[in-house]
Amino acid sequence: MMKSRCLVIGFLMLVSGSLAAVTDSAGTELKLKESPRLWVSQETVHHLSDKLHTPYLQSQARRIIEDADWLVDIRPIAEGEGKAYQYGTRAIASHLQCLTAAWVLTHEAKYRAAAIRHMGNLMTWTHISCEARPTTPADTELPFCLSYGEHAADIGFMYDVFRPDITPEEQQVFFDVLDRFYLKEALKCLEQPPWWANQSWSNWNGVCCGGMGILALAFYDDRPEVRNLIPFVEKSLGEYFKSYIENGGGCHEGTGYWNYGMHYAMRYLLSWENATGLKHPAFEIQELGMSLNFPLDFTGITFGDNDGWGPTGMYFMLAKRLNNPDAALRAATYLPEQVAAAPQERERLSRMATGDILYAADFIPSTKEMEELRKTHMQKREPVARIYKGLGWAALADDSAFPTLRLSARGGSSEITGHGHLDLLSFICMVNGERMIDTQRDHGYISTTFSGRGHEIYSRSAASKSTLFVDGLGCRENAVCEETEVERDDDLLGIRIDGSNIFLVRWKNDFIGRHFLMVENRYWLVIDAAPGHIMESRFHTYAECTRGTDWLSLKSGKEQMMMTFASLGEGEMQESLGMPASPQEQTRIFRWMSPGGQDNLHVTALNPGNEKLGLELSKASDGGFAIKVSGASGYQRTIRLTAELKLKK
């Protein structure tokens, strides 16, 4: 912790020093390049259509033009068209991005004119806040929020690419919307900082400050009052980056909110560097580079309530800036081969194709590079076991680039902040992209989600997780796992979590824990220990299921997985259903249960395919355990562990 604090203090001092280094003689102004100067380079703005080197990028460009042609002819979105304000503002954001990208691709005047027209229509809106409601009085002023941050970034980028030859009439439209909403509310933050300012734990800080900073850099020359926003942005983002320092590059809100907050915060940093020609000290934070692994490790198997990551232009630009070509290659495996053509009929609030990924074309691996990557990994797999220190989340996979087996395991703390859940010792796993073991999910947020009792909602509680229950209890609030560590020995690779302190404080001296062990890069063993207690190893799934007394067959899409259950003492399977807060699909829950006993141990084999593995458990004279695994063609393997579930080597 002391190291983290020193890094943060050092970062803030570096920020102050960097700002001082680029001030003019008056000591107040940054010296910036001419526009375009933000996160997209001048060369890219001028020659984007020449850079589209893959079929995917080319098809994305075609889709942008198709969508933009439709937007040219429609009337802009009116206030109240969406059932919530954010539906409307986010549709507007995608429309502005689409039209701007179409202009950058073609430099045809119709797209630029349409972008200005759609933006100017915001002057007919009373509110743009994501917190506005249809009943919000017209004279209520709502503070700078997520919608402000999103639009500030989009409008700032529009201004940046249009500015070199902007007309007075176009410029006035920009100034009008700034004065009505974005700049007015941004400047108020300097006197009355909103709740999200300087918060390390919330994606709101990254989104709002990132967007505000992009806006300030774009209008720096033409609206001098924006210059006062830069120190506010720098200080607040300094706090935001604390969470990445303290969490080893991970994000406690999950992959979707990593993507959301970083999308704006990193584009601000990249814009600052491009505009000033200097290096931003934030990029010296080691954990920001480490964080590039986080969405790749957990996409599809994240904890929390938003699994919304996908490779973006920011990601590839950041990988280039931080000199991490492996991250760019891994991310590119998630890019599709083609983008579907536009539908014949669109809804007015539909999201349009945007240029985000195209702007990073120079940093996206080529088709040849991806073919070479696949060839290399077919010849030799690269298993991954990674723990984000401080956060305690762990990822286990049979390959870093083209994984067949992927599992996430939850150590760390159950302190509830932002989008966190009560999910210690839980796990999620996938086979060839199909989620086999899961959590009961809810769709969207409800009025109680972020209340003081939000953790009692079923989908946010321990009951909804694939985790370990001891004497009927899941993990408690504000508990911390004693240890989360990687275990390895030859062809064994695992994640061991000591959860002795997360149920009842009085149990802290008795070992309770789980070990997620990948064997020979082809199947998993989930090993649970809670000596002397009633145990339940709980598994949620949305897959099709067939079960026996000690086995379970799962099928999802084209993939299958066979589970075998064993106990050192008695064991019994029970089944129930998940209980989402609103009507939607329920998980099937399989509960492998044992009565209290001194030698309690559960082992569950998860074997991709349709083969049922045999399990035979025994206790060693030194208090440890032996797990004998058997399979087809005479396969046998014995794995030995200590009483604390560490591998015996």
Features:
single chain; 649 residues; alpha+beta; Glycosyltransferase; Beta-galactosidase, Chain A, domain 5; 2 domains; 8-stranded antiparallel β-sheet; 5-stranded antiparallel β-sheet; 20 strands; elongated; disordered N terminus
Question: What's the short story on this structure?
Answer:
The protein is of the alpha+beta class. The chain has helices at about 1-20, 40-45, 55-75, 85-105, 110-120, 145-160, 170-190, 205-220, 230-245, 255-275, 285-290, 295-300, 315-320, 325-330, 365-380, and strands at about 385, 395, 405-410, 425-430, 435, 470, 485-490, 490-500, 515-520, 525-530, 535-540, 545, 550-555, 560-565, 570-575, 590-595, 600-610, 615-620, 625-630, 635-640.
